[in-house]
Amino acid sequence: MTNSSSRGLHLDPSLDPTQSRSSSIFEDWGSSNLKVLAERLRHYRPSPSSWASSDDETHGGVTSQVGMPTSIANANDLKVPPKSKRAAVLLCLFQGAERELRVILTKRASSLSSHSGEVALPGGKRDEGEDDKATALREAHEEIGLEPSHVKIVTVLEPFLSKHLLTVTPVVGIIPEHHKFEPRPNAGEVDAIFDVPLEMFLKDERHRVEDRQWLNIQYRVHYFDYDAPDGKKYIIWGLTAAILIHAASIILQRPPDFPEFWPDFDALARNVRDGKGGGNMP
Fold first, then answer.
1. Is pTM beyond 0.85 here?
2. Sign of CA dihedral 158, 9, 195, 242
3. What CA–CA distance (Å, rounded) separates 257 from 5?
4. pLDDT value at 282 more than 70
């Protein structure tokens, strides 16, 4: 288990605004902290992977549902889907009232046929001719009414492999002027829009896990409980939690206070190839 002391909810004070090359920090980003954070994240490059095709945006390694970046040499054995089965989500950050980083989440509509009532990042499957950034922005506009012009995209993280073997790419964006965002939930897709502090996904408070098996390989599902100011309670878990743990580790530059438990991808690939186990992750 890897432990690390918390930095607190505030943005890292080492983000020195004097290091910014822009003379219009506050006009462009709303705060010097967000500006310097954006400049740092723009230098982030996902780990190289042999599976990524030449025109993939990330050229990065696939991650599992538990958020472990890995270059999977046997990605073809895992039957990673073609581009027609790719999706992107928008990890949209803004600065809260106490200068903490917060991320926007949704609760999926109860009427949906899949993952109804679950907490998710805005996003969906890529349309033909789209890249991950365009997909994430389009879906966020459709689902929560977020205008693309209000978001500054700063980086793209490693793709994740969902339980349905769908590759999901997190796109990180910042809203400099969050007060201008007026949430408009799409009633057919979204029951609620809310935001949470990003750092909660590195803390062991209100965090629990469940160990499961798929294709005879053990993997770990993370759960986070969140009580919103309006009294509503949310559970953030599964792939969404995995993405947020991984993203928070990169953005806040420290590991989580709990073990993530990384599955044995070589064994998983062998089991897929040998036909052991079967079906989707429960």
1. no
2. positive
3. 8
4. no
Asked if 97 and 107 touch (Cβ cutoff 8 Å), the reply is no
Alpha-carbon distance of 229 to 223, in angstroms, equals: 20
Range list for CATH 3.90.79.10 in the chain = 47-274
User: What is the residue type of 60?
Assistant: G
User: Which class would CATH give 47-274?
Assistant: alpha beta
Distance CA 87, CA 170 (A): 9
Residues in the chain, total: 282
Half-sphere exposure of 174 (CA within 13 A, CB side): 22
Contact assessment for residue 93 and residue 86, using Cβ atoms and an 8 Å cutoff:
no
DSSP H or E segment with residue 26: helix 25-29
CA 158-164-165 angle, 5° bins: 45
What pLDDT is stored for residue 218 in this prediction?
A: 79
Closest CA to 176 of 159, 158, 153, 199: 153
Residue 18 pLDDT > 80, yes or no? Answer: no
Can you tell me which residue has the tokens 């002391």?
5
Is pLDDT of 9 > 80? no
* pLDDT band, very low/low/confident/very high, at 123 (cuts 50, 70, 90): very high
